[in-house]
Amino acid sequence: MRRIHQLVAAAGIGLLALTGAGQEATAQVKVGAVLSVTGPASFLGDPEKKTLEMYVDAINAKGGVNGQKVQLVIYDDGGDANAARTFATRLVEEDKVVAMVGGTTTGATLAMIPVFEEAQIPFISLAGAIQIIQPVRKWVFKTPHTDKMACEKIFADLKARKMTTIAMISGTDAFGKSMRDQCVGVAPSSGITIAHEETYGPRDSDMTPQLTNIRNKAGVQAVVNPGFGQGPAIVTRNYRQLGITVPLYQSHGVASKQFIDLAGPAAEGVRLPAAALLVADKLPDSDRQKKVVVDYSRIYREKTGQQVSTFGGHAYDGLMILVEAMQRAKSADKVKVRDEIEKTKGYVGTGGIVTMSPTDHMGLDLSAFRMLEIKKGDWTLLN
Amino acid sequence: MPRLIDSRYTPLIAVALIALLLPLIFPSPYYYRIGALVFIFALAVIGLNLLMGFAGQVSLGHAGFLGIGAYAVAVGPTHLGLPSWFCIFAGAGASALVAYAVGQPILRLKGHYLAVATLGFGIVISIVLTNEAGWTGGPDGMSVQRLVLFGWPMHGSKIWYWIGAGTLLVGVALALNLIDSPSGRALQAIHDSEVAAQVLGVRVARKKLSVFVISAVYASVAGSYLALLNGHVTPDLAGFMRSIELVAMVVLGGMGSVFGSLVGAAVLVVLPQALTSFHDYEHMMLGLIVMGFMILLRRGIVPALGAALTGRAL
Amino acid sequence: MAEFLQFLFSGLTVGAVYALVALGFTLIYNASGIINFAQGEFVMLGGMTTVFLALVGVPLPLAAVVAVLAAVAVGLLLHRFAIEPARGADTVSLIMITIGASIFLRGAAQVVFDKRFHSLPHLFGTDPLRIGGAAILPQSLVVLAGATVIVVLLWIFIDRTLFGKAVIATAANRLAARLVGINTGHMIGFSFAISAAIGALAGILVTPITLTSYDVGTLLALKGFAAAMLGGMGYALGAVVGGLLLGLLEAFSAGYLSSKYKDVVAFLVILAVFFVMPQGLLGRAKVERV
């Protein structure tokens, strides 16, 4: 009996020691990140992780922030909000981070918010939903555009084309669901009627039944597809397979040029709202974001061999807003850093030009989105 | 020594000692959270172990009950204005009812067919939780109001460590009692051979159904606790992968071993924390460790080690 | 009518994918009684290996062959180093080993490959065939044809060769099979190799339609498993019938009922089938050994 207990105790202590190993405090600024590097949102979390690692290395190579090296602690929540919460506690209690950049999904972010609010640590989320910053929480910020802005941008473009009746097909994943709700919310005030709605599961491989129903619905002038991952590519392919002729709108969930590769010729004529990052090389030289997005795209491609994704851009913006705030605060003091993040003014990032305030913890407006159309297998700027 | 191990209440005493002694080596509240998670998952795993290890029925949809319990304490107070403590019981009651209704037809199936049926049940629950966003907040989940007992808010990892430990002790005691009762022996008989049990006069269908309902209640309470501990709940709590995780905890710890349930839960809760230092290789390590345990200790950690220590043959 | 046809085509397309995955479960189950939850990872390995070989300039047919061989090697290694050493453990423990293997393979794939989605070119282009106002991609027909060929080959192999009979004998009674001189270990290893090949081939054929990524295996395994059970576990024809039926159920419920609840409808129908036919559609009742 005693031997069993000894064994169990020894195993327990061993595991606990392992979790605490290698985390001695040094004279460094510790920044935490909980990202969905694996799991259903790895499409978002992977470029975020690569971006943070890349730029923290670059910052340290230049001597760090305020003369201190930045130490990045990244945990992978696998897309599970419960795991995210555990890692958030670990960042606060064990790693003693001074700030947090991350929270890939809205669910994980919402689960982690109480931990950082209570510990009074600045938290810059990389997730989309508007609930993160509305109501405004003292310690919580976010970098991506909200889904509501994407809906408004799409609806404005529809109005300009004199289209008012649309159908919507959305993913049942968090991204698609959240944007779908926002679009339904702003449709009436934008003068848009949603005549028909369909959904698909996160891993579905054929959406022709849903699109057939949309095709058969009379009076539909355009179709909007809120979704991310492989879903929009398959919707686009099925759309052409069925020979539907009304315009198709994708969302900002289509975050990388890979969408065009996956959807192939079917992507011709698809329109979508997107951050300037996607069209870095096509921006006019006068564009204030040009330099930032061109540099980020180039460095990301060189380091990873992959095409740039706007999700990685959100992580870049989060890290840079934090670093600039620390520089302005001339310290890593949590309260001062938080105050400086809130005072961010005219920060030129990959997602847009950010000006925060005590009532706006995102600081982006509709101008952050560009309307794109896919022509000859490449993005073109509309306007 | 063999007599001690066979003694009925050894697992109970062991769990109590572990819960009391662990805080002595806890350096920070983070460890209390891990401890609380281990106890809460262990509760669900004990329930599932009663079903799998003693009655021999597989459920690949048990996270569905976790979800019912979790959303009961989320939806009840938010939408219906019910007190949280009441919703724990309401969730358990709802889970029992669902298990009773679903179990009647499903438990007639055998082996892998039962596995698919339960898997389908779990998926149905998680799809409903994802789609009925008006009630559940959809894929982003919803926040959970704090549990308030006698005017005191139950908040923080430490409190939930002790609540989890206390409830686990009750769960262990009830499970041990059940196993040692005539019902428990009847379940063992079903596990060994349904036909033989039937011949011996065991009312197989009824016994299976009752243990299914009991295991659902265990999972539901665990789900409620998880939701209250986290303060936020998302549908992935009820997902297919979570069901697999629960089954893995049962099998790793040892089917038919109540103490094994705690060990299985502890291993799978602590491992992902311990493996973070492997970064990209984290999942490869997790897979290797699970395979290694099953190859080397094929009956599960506790039964295999117990046999080795008492010199019984594997 | 046009929409009925379109739903039918959609169901057949998705169903053919499920059928191919379900076929992979059949052989290992037949030889060992194990549900191999790493079957989805064989599908992933087939697709991803082909994609990445093609990316470095290997011609597609060669890339596909290498991918199948790679999956076979993984299947054999899995058997040799994980299943064989656990010989004699109960089925649940063995299934748990395959779950561990699936986690390991997914983890390895995210390191070796990447975490993005990938596609392969369609064998006969992307211009749909239009029939009665509905459209079907030629690749869907390729997948259906692939499933048919594999079923026929499996049937010939199991019913018409001594080797196949040895596999069945191994499944029926390990001890008796060994007594009549069958090397049962080899039989199970062989079944892993063939199942891996079937899985990888499925992955290559379906990737142009479904796209692929390092974690595509989980859901495919789940659906393939359900399809195999619906048809009756252990029957090659059952796997195909189950797969097609599951695909059709999803498509028709998405089309006629609700796209939100199509998976729910599909599972309810599976349950209903089990209550009438507890061994699946083509399964035969087995007497429990006491």
What labels describe this entry?
heterotrimer; A: 383 residues; alpha/beta; Rossmann fold; 2 domains; five-stranded parallel β-sheet; 12 helices; B: 314 residues; two-stranded antiparallel sheet; two-stranded antiparallel ribbon; 74% helix
Descriptive notes:
The complex is a heterotrimer of chains A (383), B (314) and C (290). Chain A is an alpha/beta fold and 383 residues long. Chain A has two domains: 187 residues, Rossmann fold; 150 residues, Response regulator (Rossmann fold). Chain A contains twelve helices and 14 strands. In chain A, helix 2 runs parallel beside helix 11, helix 3 packs parallel to helix 4 and helix 5 packs across helix 6. The termini of chain A are far apart. The N terminus of chain A is likely disordered. Chain B is mainly alpha-helical and 314 residues long. Chain B has one domain. With 290 residues, chain C is mostly helical. Chain C has one domain. In chain C, strands 1-2 form a two-stranded antiparallel sheet. In chain C, helix 1 packs across helix 6 and helix 2 packs antiparallel against helix 3. The mean pLDDT of chain C is 89. Chains in contact: A-B, A-C, B-C. Chains B and C meet through helix 6, helix 10, helix 12 and helix 14 of B and helix 4, helix 9 and helix 11 of C.
